[in-house]
Amino acid sequence: MASAEFDVTGIGNAIVDVIAHADDAFLAANAIEKGAMTLIDTARAEELYGRMGPGVEVSGGSAGNTMAGFAALGGKGAYIGKVADDQLGTVFAHDIRASGVRFTTQPLKGGAPTARCLILVTPDAQRSMNTYLGACVELGPEDIDETLIRGSQVTYLEGYLWDPPRAKEAFRKAAEIAHAAGRKVSLSLSDSFCVHRHHAEFADLVEKHVDILFANEHEIGALYGTDRFEDALAAVKKLGKVAALTRSEKGAVIVSGGETVEVKAEPVSKVVDTTGAGDLYASGFLFGYTRGLSPAACGRLGAIAAAEVISHVGARPEVSLKDLVKGVV
Question: Is residue 28 in some structural domain?
């Protein structure tokens, strides 16, 4: 196999996050489902944005966060995602490039505006996401850079892409190119509600096209139709793939072939905002994976990166991840 120019290329919904604090009463008053990701239209986006308190705006999207974290660890990464030719699109492009990630997807001209995710963080650190996809739905097969995919050790795909139809086509095309080149395909299940919406398709995708799976205990339970983590874990083991199953403060279970390893969660003095926890876990894990580290070491790197991001508001690291992982890599 030819050497890889990039460690990981992420493909996802290019979204600008707007993060604000709110209480449970605000969620109830505005019919927001706590802890879920809900897709909203233009009118709802404008209405909710007007009601939110002061917020922090930062380029986001699940795979975008993962790639920014990956670059912060010292990995060589690229990103494919669709923004509009507007102010938020320019902000997104500058931000992700400034983080050290290659981003060359052509912006959408004359269509929907750049996507944004309105995130309400409650005092218990739960985040409830209200996403207006905008230009994201226009990501299509023509946006997949074949040379980039062939030249990446791993192509990382976010489960949220399974909502927009054209993005789904792009997803499948990227997976086919990666495997034809002898590369690996990784998938994050993203959200249990997303899994429920596309259950049969996700199950088929995981079984036939995914080499490295990321899921939390709720998402993996949704995939296999069980509330018992032990049953979901047994189903994952039968796949014979690499899987990182996260369980919040309980740590994570890593499955790799016939090996199963439990990795403890990293201690955090205070959980401030869980936005991006799974995204940054994937950053750390993939950084270890692309360097040939053991499943336990990959899991530890994921735990360290996730712990850093939940200690503050926002889904991008605020301290040097390179310094935090010294001694593990």
Answer: yes
Is 188 part of a structural domain of the chain? Answer: yes
CA distances from 15 to 60, 67, 322 (A): 5, 13, 26
The answer to whether residue 53 sits within a structural domain is yes
Number of H helices, E strands in the chain: 13, 14
Please give the structure tokens belonging to residue 311: 């200690």
- The full 3-state SS of 192-248, as one line of letters, equals HHHHHHCHHHHHHHHHHHCCEEEEEHHHHHHHHCCCCHHHHHHHHHHHCCEEEEECH
Domain that holds residue 173: 6-324
Number of structural domains (the chain) is 1
Instruction: List pLDDT tens digits, range 196-207.
Output: 888 898 998 899
Whether 1 is in a domain gets the answer: no
Are the beta carbons of 13 and 168 closer than 8 angstroms? no
Cβ-contact 300, 328 below 8 angstroms = yes
pLDDT in tens, 65-120: 999 999 999 999 999 999 999 988 998 999 999 999 999 999 999 988 999 999 99
CATH code for the domain of 66: 3.40.1190.20
Q: What is the pTM of this model?
A: 0.89
The full DSSP string for 39-84 is: E--HHHHHHHHHHS-SEEEEEE-HHHHHHHHHHHTT--EEEE---B
Using CA atoms, how far apart are residues 316 and 209, in angstroms rounded to an integer?
Answer: 29
